[in-house]
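In the previous chapter we treated chains in isolation. Here, by contrast, the input contains two separate entities that must be folded as one system, with a combined length of 429 residues.
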Amino acid sequence: MYSQALNERVEGPRVVEDPGKVAAFEARIDAEERIEPNDWMPEAYRRTLVRQISQHAHSEIVGMLPEGNWITRAPSLRRKAALLAKVQDEGGHGLYLYAAAETLGVSREELCEQLLTGKAKYSSIFNYPTLTWADIGCIGWLVDGAAIMNQIPLCRTSYGPYARAMIRICKEESFHQRQGYEIMLTLCRGTAEQKAMAQDALNRWWWPSLMMFGPPDAESQHTQQSMRWKIKRFTNDELRQKFVDATVPQGHYLGLTFPDPLLRFDESTGHWRFGAIDWDEFKRVLAGYGPCNRERMAARRTAHAEGAWVREAALVHAEKRRLREQAQKIAAE
Amino acid sequence: MMAEQPMPLWEVFIRSRTGLAHRHVGSVHAPDAGLALDAARDTYTRRGEGLSIWVVPSSAITASDPAEKGSLFEPTASKIYRHPSFYDIPEEVGHM
């Protein structure tokens, strides 16, 4: 579903790079060439990508949890089938991204461990609860809407395997936002109670959705370097503004109001101006103190632990069959 | 954690339509070739993108070094007579 531009410092020993190689690498970036797994790349580029792609993958995987809660409670078979397909897509997107990260020399087991031990971050948005069915509408409309805004420029990111994964993801994701908006539209055209449910969900999801684009540019430590290397094509604030401009008219069409008294259209720039984002809340949620952080991590850890015997049995079974085939071959000779 | 045995890695190639070549789409982890095919189907063809799938152990792939592309592909660069534009044909003869 989405990667958050968290921009925290990339850890690891400082590497002194060969200036000639760096210059050749940057010339390739400037020429819009894609960097491929076996190509030389600066260590900081590799680390930034591993961090960003794996955070993105973790977000897809954890993102299945808040929506998965509602599969058995979807109000109709049509909604249930769509939600199931969407959650299945998120799982697939996580796998595409893990595979892209692995081309940078990090193993799936390491990535998985980083998520389960809390060393790696995932998008703050998935630490909020899905209290009503309208939340599923809001996740599709706002959370996937924000994700798409963020992901479309990533289809042109400089690292080939990441760009190709993003192309697949964007193609598949186009239905996610539409199914969410359709849920909202249905609720808003329903009873007063249903419309109130939609409004309540918008009230709770609006600000966390804006936080999905990451800290403001002024506080963003790595934006410049990531832009220089064409990992990112737009800054956090640019993408946030695009999202607000696209989304506010959609909300008004639903007949809903946004929980921001300062939201107004600026005729001179053609942009919607919005109030201050509560960055303390963002930092708290990222640090592990959001409403559902512990629940999400517990669910992932349980799923991983309970699947261990399946992985083990599959490997043992594959080995047993290999040995049996080998024995048959020898016997035939 | 981490005591688990790593799951083998497979590269996935999909033929999207009759007549097209199998094209690399990504990779999956699976204990054997059969399960790698199943995983590739579930991961990369949820919308009927494929007519057929190949899975190849990642360790079986040998790749050329892009840094040496100059010397590796040198023979092609110097053989301009392999291209039709090398030959002069009078305009009156028409398109050939």
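The radius of gyration of chain B is 22 Å. DSSP finds three helices and three strands in chain B. Compare these points with the single-chain example from earlier in the chapter.
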